Structure formats: structure tokens, C-alpha cells
Amino acid sequence: MTDELGPLLRRLRTQAGLTQELLAERSGVSVRTIRRLETGKATDHRLGTVNLLADALEVGPGDRRLLAATLGRAESAPAALPAPGSPGPSPVRGALADAADELAREVRRRWRREEEQRRVHDPFPLPVRWREAPPDLTDHSENVQRLEPGATADRMDLSGDLRSAAEVYRRISSGRLVVLGRAGSGKSILTIRFALDFLETRTGADRVPVIFSLGSWDPTTTVLRDWLIGRLLRDHPHLARRVPSGATLAAALVDADLVLPVLDGFDEIAEGLRCEALEALNSTSLPLVLTSRRGEFAEAVRAAGTPLVWAAGIELADLTLDDLADYLPRTARPAAQADGGGPAGAVWEDVLAELRAGESPASRHLAEVLSTPLMVILARTMYSDARDRSPAELLDGARFPTAHSLEDHLLAGFVPTVYRRRAAEQSADGRPGGPQNRDPDSARRWLGFLAHHLVRLDRDQQDLAWWQISAALRRPTRTAAVVLATALCVAGADWAVTLLITPTGLGEALLQGALMGPAAGLAFGSVYAVLAASGGRPFEPARFRLRLPRARNSMGRGPVRTFVGRFGSGMLGGSVMGIGCACALTLERAVYMGLPLTNVYVLQGTLINMLAFGLIFGSAAGLVFGLVAVLEAPLDVASAATPTGLLSSNRATAARQLAVLAPLLVVTIALGGYLIVGLLRGFLGPMSWGLTDGLLIGAVGGIGGALSYVLSFTAWGQWVVLSRVWLPLTGKLPWDTAAFLDDAYRRGVLRQTGAVYQFRHVRLQHHLAHSYRQQQAKYAPARFADPGAGPANRAESANRGGATEDRADRS
Prior knowledge:
This protein has helices at 2-15, 20-27, 31-39, 47-57, 61-71, 95-117, 141-144, 165-170, 187-200, 224-235, 249-255, 274-282, 294-304, 321-331, 349-357, 361-369, 373-384, 403-428, 440-456, 475-501, 506-533, 559-593, 600-628, 643-684, 691-713, 715-729, 737-747, 762-775, 791-810; strands spanning 130-132, 176-180, 208-213, 259-264, 288-292, 312-316, 544-546, 632-634, 750-753, 756-759. By secondary structure, the protein is mostly helical.
């Protein structure tokens, strides 16, 4: 393929009379990439790149077919390059097609469950209608329809509702659609319904629609392709498997144009990055669906000087009074009536009558508030599903003088309502308390902390990942927790081994563990602090499982490269721990035997021990961690479809790591020490390392070191130490954090997006965070900044955090 594509591309460029520099300027593809393609040095051919070059060269149908035939010879590329106006790629065969089909099944299963959890169909979906977006926010019809120069565009019919979203999208030749709407207007629900309907009619030629929450994308540091691949790997870890070219399945699917990105929440990108984000999207020809609030998208269009190229646009309309009259009465079941009787829906009759009359400012304000699905759902939760409240209070003009005050009331009452309602149902049924019977005030405080934590990250985010909750703690606090946890692990291992195996006295055993534990804790804490200070983010969940080694197939990557990388990091960490153990041994002798630390022989012995223990522990850790890499295999397809599933799989992986690392470290430390001491004895003089002593030292180092590694340098370990122990100790979170998050999801406060949670709506997140900050006596905006960020970033984070609630209210 490389030999054929290069000459073909060079011939087409020469026929067009373009230099490589002019072609780069027209297509947006770098000169370096064009040069590598023409010379055959590039081995990873992306459909989007070749498509951009074909468009810039204005090649005809025959040459496009020739390019398609050239690309079709590669297994990881689609069999055809679509011409302007074509609906999508041609069918793909082989492992990549199977992976796309499996991804489609998983996406369908996930979003069906999410739609049920959000009660979208109870009693029926709220009507989501739209109109065409303003012309200044969309591209020319000729460009959207991908017509040749001089052709006249036909009028596109983009009318429809929630049930026809996929059908409307298929009418768009370019495959690029912008969905605009107010906050809470139903954009996220529309994306779910679009994905499900698109998958219902998907054929082998269609891409797989995957919903991505766009708020975490930083276009200045990560190109769109890499960000999409990273999110696919996070939410679908089984896509980490390798194709013959060495790329992951996630990368192969994206590069083969088999993924249709549904980018939800353009407005949630940091304000200063939206223009760059739009320009990055315009540099690709990737079919996509983009949702955004209208104001933020319009600002980005004005700043960039162009809308999303080739994109059609629709804007969601407000709900009408007829919509409310059809929906709200059917949500009030007879059992929820305040008096226990009366016809179903009677609770809303007086309110709807007032809204239709529109004679008072209060009724007009309420009609304005209830024009979005978000506020209707909040009102339904507080009044239709409650037994002791009447929606008539929403018409109290003295209590709610503005539409803003009504929205605040609905946002503030949502969390207490869902927690009180579930508790009342449990009590009525005689069921005991537990995770399902929580105190509403405590639940609101914990949720407020989590919402505030999302603001304290590098910028205002929506993704609530269990492995990132620990980032809410300051770096010194996290390091201190690692030191303490490691010290307890190593001291406990030392006490257990010494008391159970050796005849050492109790006093000496306690002293030895009391010195060895803190020394190891400081060693692990130092490595952790260096990683954190160097810009390291929270440890990502493992995307692998451990299994017995077997012959590698073509999907695997080279074991030598993996072994070398793991050996280096293990060698560094083990050496630091060995040096710390040598220092602890000297302190033990100084305390127990009364040896002066300033004695020249004591200092000399300490230096020799530091060298020996550093080599022994370092080589053992490097060898063991390198060998463990051979046991790693990608996760199963359905092993991490939810946050709880990913947590469970990582817990199992951590347990297997501990079970493998501990015995291997014991053996390698014992035998390695015997060999290393034998080699050093000839240079450094008399040294002692018997196999029995080596096994004892290896048992302490192996058990304590393996447990310390799992707790300090894995996502699950950090979750246990910081989110399950440290934060609950300070009252920031409950002790059963995982159960609390899952319970909040089942109550409808949180939603699931792949492997992470999000608050039901960003406005609810901002409201809870704002309320939490108001309750903190020592609150200061500067605390929003990440402790590791630079001064400029800290100031920007503080300003953004202080304005978060205001932005949400203005939307």
C-alpha cells in the first residue's frame, strides 16, 4: 500500500500544479505529513487525512476510486474513500468490522439503560422540536451538500422531532450537524435518542455513533483524534487490544472512519479554548454531531470568523403550554396526591389554568421557567412524585418574585426531595436503613463537595471519575497519606514476619518494625511526591487483566519494549526503598545496640548497606515488574461498561497484582541478594547474606513492598487510601463512597457517561457547588486552583470558579 499511495498522491499533486507547500495550505495537512506520504515513510494512513488531500486536489471520481482501491488493501483502513455527498464508508471486513459491531452493541446497551434510568419514557418523552439554526451559525447549503463548483443546492428539509433525529441527520450529505439550544432544552436527551435510532438502522457501511462529553477537551494540548481515542480507551478498555500495525483497536476504528463522534457540550469547553476548538474541528473533514448552547457557539464563530464548516444546524425550541398540559397531569399518579384521592393529575389543574390565563407576573415567570425539559423534570420530581407538596406554591409571587428565584427553588429542592422520598418509601415498607436511606442534608453536603471538586480541577469539568476524586486533596495531604499507608504496610509486614517466624524478642521486633515502616513510607512518599510535582495526574485505571502467559499473536505488542520500560521504573522505586531500609537498619542498631551514628565504621557500613540494598531491591523490583508485564492482557468487552464495573475490575486486577508481586519479590530479593552480595564481597570486604536471612528480608520487603505499591501507585489503591479512608475521616464523603455514588445515580442525581459519572445537568452541578462553597467558613476563590498549576493557571481557575454559578444562571 505504501509503495502505491505515494506515487499516486505525487502524480495527482503534480497534475494539479501544486507544490507540497501549496497543498498543505489548501488542505490543512502539514507539509511533513504530505512528504512522508509521498515518500512512503508514513505507515499509518488515516482516512480523514487522505480525504482532506483529495478535496484540496479536487480529484475526479476516477481518481477517488483509485485512491479507495489503494486504501482498501490495508486491513485497518476502510474499503472506500467517500466522494463529496456520499453517505459514508463502505463495509469493512475482518477483525476491525467485528470490533465496530461489538462497539455498536455495547453503545446501544449502555444508552438504552441510561435512557431508562433517566425515565425518559415515563409516561412519554417530552416533545423536543427544533427549527433551522440562524444562517450565520451554519455553512452554505452548497458546502453542506458537498456539491461541485457551480452546482445549485436543493433546499434541505431539517424539520422533525425527537423521534426523527437520526432520519434528519441522514439527509445531511456532509454528515456534520450542529444542535443548538438553551441550558436544559434537551440536547443531551436528543443525543441519546439519536445514537439509539441511528444504531437501530445501522448497516455495515455506517459508522458507530459514540457520545463524547466535550467539556474535558483541551485543543491546545491534544488533537481531536488523540482525545477521541483516549476517551474510547477509558470507556471501552477492551479496545486497547492491538491490530497488526501496532495501533490499538480504538485508534484503528477512529482512523478507519468507523466512529461517528457525537460531541455533547461544546459550551462546556473552557471559555478561552472554544475558538481553538472550533478551528481544530474545522481542520478535519470528520462527520460529527455537535451540541452547544447558542450563545457560546455564536461567540466562538465570531472569534474564529467561520462556523463549523460543512455543517447544517438546528436549534431546539421551547416547550409550549400545550406540552405541559399533556405531560404534567400524567406524571401525577393517584398515590402521590396530597389528600390520597382525587383524579390523577388534579394536582396540576389549577397551576395549568393560571399559566394559560397568564394574568399575573408569577404565572408568566413560571411559564418561562417550565419552557425547558430540565425544569419540567425538576418540577415533576418535587410535586408529581411527592405526597405532601402542592405545585400551587410555585405561583407565590412574594416568595418567588423572578424566574431566577423559581429556578433556584427547583434546583435547591431536587436533591432533598429524591432522598426524602426514597427514605419515606423505605420506612413505609418497613425496610431497614442503609445506603438507600440517607440523610438528605448529609447527601447534599457530600454531593456539594463532589461538585466543588470538579471545579477545583484544572478547569470546570463534568466528568466525575472515581479515580480522580483524590485530586480534591492538596498534594502535601496526598503525599502524607501515602507515607502513612506505606509505613503501616511495611511495619505490619515486618511485625508479622518477625514475630511468627523468628525468635526475636517482642521489644526488638516492635522497634524494628517501627523504624522500618517510616523509612519505607518516606521512600515511597518521596517517589510519589516527585511524580506529583512533575505534573503527574491521578493514576489511570488499569486497562488490563492478569492471566497465564501464552504465545503472543499478532495483536500483541513487543514484550521487550514493555519489559525494559517496567524494569526501569521498578529499578528506580526499588532502589529508593532499599536505601531507606539501609538507613532504618542503621537507626535500629544505633537505638538497640547504642552505636554512635557519627562513628566512621557506622557511616561506612551504612553506605555499603545503601549500595547493597539499593541494588538488591532495585534489581528485584525491576525484574519482577518487567515479568508481570508478560501476564497483562486487555480487559474483556463487557468488564468495564460502568463506573462500578471499572472499579470492580480494577479491584480484581490489584488483588491479582498483589498475589503475583509478593511471592516473586520474596524470591528475587532472597536469591538476588545472595548473588549481589557475593559479587560485592570481593570489592567491599566481608559481607553476610544467608539464604535464611535473605528470605526473611525478602518476606518483609516483598509483602510490604507489594502492598505499598498497590496502595500508592494504582488507581484502586489511591481510591482506597484517599477516597475510602482519608476523605470520610474528614467528613467530606461517606464511608461507603462507591455505594453512595451508585445510589445517587439510581435516584437520578447523577448520570453515567461511559466509565464516569456526571451530575444530571451542569446547572445542578453548579448549584450544588455554589451552595457548598457558601457553607464553608474559610472559603476563598483561590482554593479552586490545582496546587500543581502555575500562577497564571491558578488565577484563571479562581476567576472561573468564582463565576461558575453566575454563568449557569445567565444561561
